């Protein structure tokens, strides 16, 4: 997949990631990856009454990691924890309008 084949949605989430940064008063935080040799992601979440009130991320990585992180946050925000846990890698890829094969094979590390 060359640049011309990247979906407009994927490029929009790469260029203008949603829910990026650190939210105020998170009651959960997690990280995954390795800053020295690959993609690294931190997620901040605030859950009230089993509902994801707010969620954000910081990412150090390629365009696929940035766009996937952005879409993941968008898909999870406002969902119950059970609904959010059901979001699959394929759901994220499909919502982005596709992802290059070499980015798919790395598995989305936060799923």
Structural class: alpha+beta
Number of helices: 5
Summarize model confidence as the mean pLDDT: 90
Q: How are the strands of the biggest sheet laid out side by side?
A: 1-2-3
What do we call the CATH topology? Sufe protein. Chain: A
Q: What is the CATH architecture descriptor?
A: Alpha-Beta Complex
Name the shape in a single word: globular
Whole-Å distance between the termini? 23 Å
Percent helix, as a range, is 25-40%
| Cα-atom radius of gyration | 14 Å
Structure description:
The structure is a single chain. The protein has 111 residues and is an alpha+beta fold. The protein has one domain: Alpha-Beta Complex (Sufe protein. Chain: A). 34% of the residues lie in helices and 23% in strands. Helix 1 crosses helix 2. It is globular, with a radius of gyration of 14 Å. The mean pLDDT is 90.
Key phrases:
single chain; 111 residues; alpha+beta; Sufe protein. Chain: A; 5 helices; 3 strands; 34% helix; globular; NIF system FeS cluster assembly NifU N-terminal domain-containing protein; NIF_FeS_clus_asmbl_NifU_N
Would you spell out the secondary-structure blueprint of this structure?
Blueprint (H helix, E strand, L loop, with lengths): L7 H8 L12 E6 L6 E9 L2 E10 L2 H14 L4 H5 L3 H7 L5 H4 L7
Antiparallel strand pairs: 1-2, 2-3
Helix pairs in contact: 1-2
In short:
The protein is of the alpha+beta class.
């Amino acid at each position: 997949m060359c640049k011309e084949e990247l979906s407009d949605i994927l490029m929009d989430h790469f260029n203008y990631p949603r829910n990026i940064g650190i939210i105020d008063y998170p009651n959960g935080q997690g990280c995954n990856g390795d800053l020295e040799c690959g993609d690294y992601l931190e997620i901040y979440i605030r859950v009230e009454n089993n509902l994801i009130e707010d969620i954000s991320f910081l990412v150090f990585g390629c365009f696929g990691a940035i766009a996937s992180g952005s879409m993941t946050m968008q898909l999870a925000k406002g969902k119950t924890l059970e609904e959010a846990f059901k979001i699959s890698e394929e759901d994220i890829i499909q919502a982005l309008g596709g992802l290059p094969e070499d980015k798919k094979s790395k598995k989305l590390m936060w799923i």
